[in-house]
Amino acid sequence: MNQPTTKRSSLLLRAALALLAIAATVPAHAATTTCSTNSEIRQLDYWLGSWTVSAPGSTDTSTAKVSLSLDRCLFTESWDNGKGHAGQDMFAYSPDDKNWHGMFADNEGRVHLFNRGKVAAGTAEFEGPSRGPQGEAVLNRVKLVRVSANKLAQTWEKSTDNGATWNMIFRGEYSRKTP
């Protein structure tokens, strides 16, 4: 294994262990009740389901499926662009620090951790640091906005000046698949 792959694998393992450690601190019976009824967590339920994702001006589409696991505590998005690029995102709310945390990973070896998040009715925003291709500090910001019951807008922005200015790198329109 080459060094970048080893570093990415190590980062992915540490992030997964951190999310599991957060979940393990809550007794099993409390986690079920807490996550199922916690209004803070349930505000992201609008994202659940199967989606077709398109970018404005493009005829290409991707697919995404958002589901719950760990007794309705963990949101997981699995996505695929249909051209060999796939990934997963995980987001969970921690009642201990009253903050959302998340992780993005794809099959090209990219991993991004989100250590700050906020969700309100119909909107979600997650931020976290990473490194650019030359090792420079980068701040990532992902926003998810409910446009209607069957439409969402997602943007991914990056900042190399600690959030003073942002550069949009992705804008996707989610359309709910009909059964």
Any key phrases for this structure?
179 residues; alpha+beta; Lipocalin
Describe this structure in words.
With 179 residues, the chain is an alpha+beta fold. It has one domain (3-176): Calycin beta-barrel core domain (Lipocalin). Helix content is 20%, strand content 49%. It contains three helices and eleven strands. The chain has an eleven-stranded antiparallel sheet with strand order 6-5-4-3-2-1-11-10-9-8-7, with helices on one face. Mean pLDDT is 87; it is low at 28-32.
Q: If helices are DSSP runs of H or I spanning 4 or more residues, what is the number of helices?
A: 3
Low-confidence stretches: 28-32
CATH architecture: Beta Barrel
* CA-based gyration radius: 16 Å
- In percent, how much strand structure appears in the residues? over 45%
Q: What is the mean predicted local confidence, pLDDT?
A: 87
- Portion of residues within helices: 10-25%
Question: Summed up, what is this model?
Answer:
The chain is of the alpha+beta class. Helices cover 20% and strands 49% of the residues. A hairpin with a 6-residue loop joins β1 and β2.
Write the layout of secondary structure elements.
Elements: H1 3-24, H2 28-37, H3 39-42, E1 49-54, E2 61-69, E3 74-80, E4 86-94, E5 99-106, E6 111-114, E7 116-120, E8 123-131, E9 137-148, E10 151-159, E11 167-176
